[in-house]
Structure formats: structure tokens, C-alpha cells
């Protein structure tokens, strides 16, 4: 309910949007709206079909509801490494920073990875996962597609924490069995060990949430270099053996060095995408992270298979991987969403990624690769993502990437109420002139008359809705996220 701007109602049974009434504009029309449905106002969060829970947004117009963000690519165990890159590119960074932190999520007593009990996860790892789920929710991420590690107990623990916090999530146990490319301390001893361990996590997740309402397993070969052909093919078969087929996620064409390595390791494949295609890993439920340097033929193959792209611009810039030509992908009919790719990406915020997507799109015209691809040496501006484009990718785009386009990412009737209440700062009407207050402003403990109370976004009162949204995308953060709901249930409050 956005008070005085209409009513939107959500079923307490299935968390879906039942309808709207935009005629409700004041208390009297609200009361008659309620009585026309035979509803009463519930105290607290009651689950009664004949009562409603009132959620108001502030009538001073500095609050609005927005669909929850969808993070289509994030590595939960890499959170402790946020901000640590050195000046290395992807392959060195994996060896130096990433594999060591992920390896620490294993239970020391389980060298063969046969334990499935989430309680056997090291306590520090549990604390990290708990923080990841709480933190991403606080940034408005209502749905995330997680890479965990190779460890079964810790992967199950991540699933249990998503479930208990109430975050919608896809949780993938990472598969990596190529001894030439994986460190000896962090590897599946065989493709088969990888399948069995993966199956244990699938069983655990499907037992915890049999209908897959909130959490679902996702088949996760790390990327082609980490995996034997046997493993890739077996994982393709494993995904297809479920009904409906399981989701799949992996990385593709992130950096030029990685692509050269794939050509060397898979000489029989026509391309990087072809490696996955031959293993039946390119399905309409496959999420391919990055795709920065996909060739035209690869993009065509990805589109024909109905596979989706997770665009991760913060990570691509931080690791120096390149500039993904998102407008080209969209124009060619690919489905694209956004991913934080923590900790290749330095922020758990999809709002930050939306802004990085807009920034990267503005630099594309200066890239020789892009000029060659399009034949344009100057920009006509069409490659730039607008605020609306970037926020679309963060919500409806992401919903299509996780294959839930009719359920999440928007507020259409029948969709699920996965939502965030955004509050922007409003500049106070100060009676004291800022000039007169100047001496105070130069001291510690000062009051800043020109600064709003909530985050970095200041409203001066004459902004249109479009302008408020633009200000939010360019300078908002988690301080603006007041409440978050998933499946109609309140799962985070800021204060
Ligand atoms: N490619 C293979 N593994 C990874 C990873 O953990 N992060 C990123 N960004 N790329 C990868
Ligand atoms: Fe990644």
C-alpha cells in the first residue's frame, strides 16, 4: 500500500500480487476499499486471509516501492576477499586470492568430501555465509544465484541460511576436477566424486524446499579450464535428468588469456561456447557469467540455445577483463541480467552494478574491439545504457536470466511480491540560512543544512519521479533500502 497513491494487495497465502486499486486516495476511500473486500486491518504480520497488513510509504513522496534486485552471479565464499585484487588478471587472481579463501570452507575432518551435514561447516565459514545473505538482502537483493565452494556441508549451510533468512536463491556446489588447472588442495579427486557431491547438495536443497518456492539447486561447473570433458558432459546429463531440468551456471569468455587457455585445452572445440554446447550445458536455464569477448558466432549459438548472460561490469573493470558490449547483445536478442560477481566485483550491491553497467556502456565507443565489431569509429550514443535500461537489467532482465520472467522482477498482477521500499533523503526546510550556519559547518559534530538525512541522495522537492529514480541510481546505496520483502514476507528492515 502506497498511501494516497493507491493500493496494491498481496496474498498472504502465496505472496503474489492480487491486484491494484488506484482510486484509493485517502482514509475514507481506503476504509471503503477494505469493507468492499470484507477485510480488516491486522495487527502485525498476521496470516489471515480476511485481514490486511498495511505497509505505507511516506506521503511526502520521498519513498517508493521498487522490485527487488536479482543478482544473477555472485560467489558467496569470496566475500572476505572483497577489495583484494593486487594488479593481477583473472587467472593469477584465482590462484593467489580465490582458491585459498574458498578452500577454507571445507570441514578439516572430511578430506573425501563425503560429509553432508551443514553443521560441520567451519564456524568462520558459517559467519561469512550468514553475513553474505544478510548483507545482500540489506542491499535489496531478493534473489541471488550463488556459487558456493566444492564442499558439501558448507554448500548445504548456504542453502539453509538463504532459506532461514528468506532470500530467494539458486545455490551451486562448484565442480572443478582438472588437476592441471586446479590446486591440489582444492579439487574434486575425480569427475565422479564431483557428481556424487553435487547430487548430495541437490538432495539436501530439494528436501529443505521440495516445491523450490525459495531455494533451488543449480549445476555449477566452475569454468571450462577447471573441468575435464568427462565432468562437463556428466554435469550436462545430470541437469537434464531432473524434471524440470536443473538450472546451470558457469563462466564464459571473461578475459582474453582465459579464452586462449580454453583453445589450448579443448583443441577439438570450435569455440569456448562450443565446449559447453558439446557437453549439453547450453540450455534455456543456463546462466553464463561475463561473455565480455564472445564472438558473433558464439553469441548466435548462445541465443539459439536460449542461454542467458550475467553481465558483471564492476568485476570486469576491477580485474581489467574488458568492456562487455551489452547493447549489441540486447539488439541481437540475448537475455541479459546483472551480477555483482563478488569478489571479482568489489561490491555486493546490484545498484552499484547498474551504475557500472551504465558507465561501461559509455566507454565502449572508445574500445578498438567494439569499433571493429560494429564498424563504427565514433559513437552515435546508441551503445549507452540509460538509467531505465540499467534498472531493467537489474530486475526484469535478471528475472529472465533465472528463468522466472513471469514471477519476479516487476509488479504486474499475479507476480510475486519480491520488493524493496526505497527512501530518499529530503533536504530540510531550514529556517537558518546556510550562510549564517557556516561557522558550525566547519567543526566536527556539525550539522549540514544542505544534506538529507538518508544516504547520499538529496531531494530538493521539485524532482519528477524520473529524476528521483535517476538520482537514486547514480548515488543511492543500502542506506536508502528501508524494507525488503520476498514472497510477500518482510525479510529485512534497515532500522
Ligand atoms: N572464472 C573461474 N572462476 C572464477 C571466479 O571465481 N571469479 C571470476 N570472476 N571468474 C572466474
Ligand atoms: Fe564469477
Write the layout of secondary structure elements.
Layout lengths: L6 E4 L6 E5 L5 H11 L2 E2 L9 E2 L10 E5 L1 E7 L14 H14 L19 H16 L2 E7 L4 H14 L2 E5 L1 E2 L15 H18 L6 E7 L7 H12 L6 E6 L3 H10 L6 H7 L7 E5 L5 H10 L2 E4 L1 H6 L7 H6 L3 E4 L11 H14 L4 H7 L12 H15 L17 E5 L1 E2 L11 H4 L16 E2 L5 H11 L5 E6 L2 E5 L2
Parallel strand pairs: 3-4, 6-7, 7-8, 8-10, 9-10, 10-11, 11-12, 12-13, 13-14, 16-17
Antiparallel strand pairs: 1-2, 5-15, 15-18, 18-19
This protein binds guanine and fe (iii) ion.
Describe this structure in words.
Catalyzes the hydrolytic deamination of guanine, producing xanthine and ammonia. One of its GO terms (biological process) is guanine metabolic process. Its EC number is 3.5.4.3. Its cofactor is Zn(2+). Pathway: Purine metabolism; guanine degradation; xanthine from guanine: step 1/1. The chain has 16 helices and 19 strands. The longest helix is centred in the middle third of the chain and has 18 residues, at 191-208. It is globular, with a radius of gyration of 24 Å. The protein starts with 6 loop residues before the first strand and ends with a strand. The protein has 2 domains: 7-56, no CATH class; 69-401, Alpha-Beta Barrel (TIM Barrel), CATH 3.20.20.140. It is 35% helix and 17% strand. Strands 6, 7, 8, 9, 10, 11, 12, 13 and 14 form a 9-stranded parallel β-sheet that branches. It has a 4-stranded antiparallel β-sheet with strand order 5-15-18-19, with helices on one face. A two-stranded antiparallel ribbon has the order 1-2. It has helices at 27-37, 90-103, 123-138, 152-165, 191-208, 229-240, 256-265, 272-278, 296-305, 313-318, 326-331, 350-363, 368-374, 387-401, 438-441, 465-475, and strands at residues 7-10, 17-21, 40-41, 51-52, 63-67, 69-75, 141-147, 168-172, 174-175, 215-221, 247-252, 286-290, 308-311, 335-338, 419-423, 425-426, 458-459, 481-486, 489-493. Helix 5 links the parallel strand 9 and strand 10 (215-221). The chain has 495 residues and is of the alpha/beta class. Guanine binds next to helix 2. Fe (iii) ion binds at residues 73, 75, 251, 289, 341, 344.
Amino acid at each position: 500500500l502506497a498511501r494516497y497513491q493507491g493500493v496494491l494487495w498481496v496474498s498472504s497465502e502465496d505472496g503474489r500480487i492480487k491486484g491494484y486499486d488506484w482510486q484509493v486516495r485517502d482514509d475514507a476511500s481506503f476504509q471503503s476499499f477494505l469493507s468492499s473486500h470484507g477485510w480488516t486491518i491486522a495487527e502485525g504480520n498476521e496470516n489471515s486471509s480476511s485481514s490486511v497488513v498495511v505497509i505505507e510509504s511516506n506521503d511526502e513522496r520521498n519513498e517508493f516501492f521498487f522490485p527487488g534486485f536479482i543478482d544473477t552471479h555472485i560467489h558467496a565464499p569470496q566475500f572476505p576477499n572483497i577489495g583484494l585484487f593486487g594488479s593481477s588478471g583473472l587467472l593469477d587472481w584465482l590462484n593467489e586470492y580465490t582458491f585459498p579463501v574458498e578452500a577454507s570452507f571445507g570441514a578439516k575432518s572430511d578430506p573425501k568430501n563425503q560429509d553432508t551435514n551443514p553443521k560441520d561447516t567451519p564456524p568462520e565459514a558459517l559467519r561469512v555465509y550468514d553475513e553474505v545473505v544478510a548483507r545482500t538482502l540489506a542491499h535489496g537483493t531478493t534473489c541471488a544465484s550463488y556459487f558456493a565452494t566444492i564442499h558439501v556441508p558448507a554448500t548445504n549451510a548456504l542453502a539453509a541460511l538463504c532459506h532461514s533468512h528468506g532470500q530467494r536463491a539458486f545455490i551451486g556446489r562448484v565442480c572443478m576436477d582438472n588437476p592441471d588447472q586446479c590446486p591440489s588442495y582444492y579439487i574434486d579427486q575425480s569427475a565422479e566424486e564431483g557428481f556424487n557431491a553435487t547430487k548430495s547438495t541437490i538432495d539436501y536443497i530439494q528436501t529443505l524446499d521440495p516445491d523450490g518456492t525459495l531455494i533451488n539447486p543449480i549445476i555449477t561447473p566452475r569454468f571450462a579450464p577447471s573441468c575435464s570433458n568427462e565432468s562437463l558432459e556428466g554435469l550436462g546429463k545430470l541437469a537434464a535428468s531432473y524434471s524440470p531440468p536443473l538450472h546451470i551456471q558457469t563462466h564464459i569468455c571473461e578475459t582474453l588469456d582465459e579464452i586462449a587457455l580454453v583453445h589450448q585445452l579443448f583443441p577439438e572445440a570450435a569455440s569456448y561456447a562450443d565446449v559447453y554446447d558439446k557437453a549439453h550445458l547450453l540450455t534455456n536455464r543456463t546462466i553464463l557469467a561475463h561473455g565480455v569477448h564472445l564472438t558473433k558466432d558464439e553469441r548466435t549459438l548462445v541465443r539459439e540455445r536460449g542461454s542467458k548472460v550475467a553481465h558483471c561490469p564492476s568485476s570486469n573493470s576491477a580485474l581489467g577483463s574488458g568492456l562487455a558490449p551489452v547493447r549489441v547483445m540486447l539488439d541481437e536478442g540475448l537475455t541479459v541480467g546483472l551480477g555483482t560477481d563478488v569478489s571479482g566485483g568489489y561490491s555486493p550491491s546490484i545498484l552499484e552494478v547498474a551504475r557500472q553497467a551504465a558507465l561501461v556502456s559509455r566507454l565502449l565507443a572508445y574500445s578498438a574491439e567494439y569499433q571493429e565489431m560494429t564498424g563504427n569509429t565514433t559513437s552515435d550514443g546508441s551503445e549507452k545504457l540509460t538509467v531505465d535500461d540499467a534498472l531493467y537489467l537489474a530486475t526484469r532482465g535478471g528475472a529472465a536470466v533465472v528463468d522466472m520472467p513471469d514471477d519476479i522482477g516487476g509488479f504486474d498482477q499475479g507476480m510475486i511480491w519480491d520488493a524493496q521500499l526505497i527512501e530518499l533523503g529530503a533536504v530540510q526546510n531550514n529556517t537558518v540560512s546556510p550562510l549564517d550556519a557556516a561557522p558550525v559547518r566547519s567543526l566536527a559534530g556539525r550539522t549540514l543544512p544542505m544534506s538529507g538525512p538518508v544516504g547520499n541522495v538529496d531531494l530538493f522537492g521539485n524532482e519528477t519521479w524520473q529524476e528521483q529514480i535517476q538520482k537514486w541510481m547514480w548515488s543511492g546505496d543500502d542506506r536508502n533500502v528501508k524494507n525488503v520483502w520476498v514472497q510477500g514476507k518482510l525479510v529485512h528492515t534497515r532500522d
